[in-house]
């Protein structure tokens, strides 16, 4: 499988920077922007030339090594040398190199006519740089700047300072990811006993491994005697001949800065229990149980008005309907716009707001698990925004819910029977009064018939009396039956309304809380994938909620 191109790495890094805006520290994003800008500038310049920089501490012999490689003392011709206060460039094949040297801000240039390596026509720039441990801050700044620009890094150390902790901690270790374009030179080995050279080289290799440069080449060299100079020349010539160093350097820069961004983390899995806990908390805050109880109360009240004893059921009409009091409709009303109409539920109490806040923040905590500080803060910011809008959103959810408290088919049936029973009772009562009232008006009193032939205790009862008592008893029985049925059906309607309300509350939870937070988690996942691609990895992130 081929290595990803610099274009692919840069694209992934730019995508990661865009996704990470506001989530990762600004100084890290600024480092990304610098790398992207630097890469664009370097790639717009000469691709033929390979830029090699000699970096080292005071007295490491960089200038002498430069002279030994060039074959002439160019590093001592400038009036301000040999302190190496400004960078010096030795240039082979100068065509097209000027713009590159201008970008490097190197004005002291020497064109070298003799070939760098026998039989090879190489386009090469070798820089002798100021000491990075110089007491002059501007010298160190130049070395640090060019350490971020050259294609190949050559660390030049001497037997006295090769183990200096400052050199390794401040300069070599931060560029450990650039091993592919790095070479270490132990200069001035002529000052060591021959038997000690191998030991010091191995010691230096161990220090470089500790810095993260386990595979870097270490060359023992003496600029004075020429020992190892040809080996160094061959290494540099190989970099120049392959003309891959610039791309390898850019790739290493991209991977390095991408590695610093990776601390954003990967979101963990949000459990179903976390979502259910959120919905339960919001349902409690939305007074779902109170509304469901109002559905049952409204159904019982209206059922009693229709099926109760007509002489007493009118009293129920005087009591307010529990649903109407909340400005809610018993069923879905096509003429009612829930976005305009509101319920008359009391505003969330402090306890209900606390319950909603606890539910939302607990969900946000679960959703932010595994993420870095910036991403976690963004998720909790979404949670805070959601808490501001939840009271009105929950109220609208209740208002648009079909509560299912409509009239039932049995209401008119029982109601009709109630009226028949009342009519029978009234007829019986009037009939009983006729023998008393008609004589007062000079009319003949009718004969009151009796119940006969039933072979029951009703035999001998006056029919009007039976109608009166039977009608009254039937009305009471029908009222009790209606109340029992109304209570049972009301309880069922309460359960159904509770389910529907919780479904609507769940929809609000998903729209207002879950989706924005999941969008942030998806952004974090995409960020992690972009970081992995910027590092040249095809790994996949886990933790889909």
Automatic annotation (TrEMBL):
<dbReference type="InterPro" id="IPR027417">
    <property type="entry name" value="P-loop_NTPase"/>
</dbReference>
<dbReference type="GO" id="GO:0005525">
    <property type="term" value="F:GTP binding"/>
</dbReference>
<keyword id="KW-0472">Membrane</keyword>
<dbReference type="GO" id="GO:0043024">
    <property type="term" value="F:ribosomal small subunit binding"/>
</dbReference>
<feature type="transmembrane region" description="Helical">
    <location>
        <begin position="465"/>
        <end position="492"/>
    </location>
</feature>
<feature type="domain" description="G">
    <location>
        <begin position="52"/>
        <end position="163"/>
    </location>
</feature>
<dbReference type="GO" id="GO:0019843">
    <property type="term" value="F:rRNA binding"/>
</dbReference>
<dbReference type="Pfam" id="PF01926">
    <property type="entry name" value="MMR_HSR1"/>
</dbReference>
<protein>
    <recommendedName>
        <fullName>G domain-containing protein</fullName>
    </recommendedName>
</protein>
<dbReference type="InterPro" id="IPR005662">
    <property type="entry name" value="GTPase_Era-like"/>
</dbReference>
<keyword id="KW-1133">Transmembrane helix</keyword>
<dbReference type="InterPro" id="IPR006073">
    <property type="entry name" value="GTP-bd"/>
</dbReference>
<dbReference type="GO" id="GO:0005829">
    <property type="term" value="C:cytosol"/>
</dbReference>
<feature type="transmembrane region" description="Helical">
    <location>
        <begin position="409"/>
        <end position="434"/>
    </location>
</feature>
<dbReference type="GO" id="GO:0000028">
    <property type="term" value="P:ribosomal small subunit assembly"/>
</dbReference>
<keyword id="KW-0812">Transmembrane</keyword>
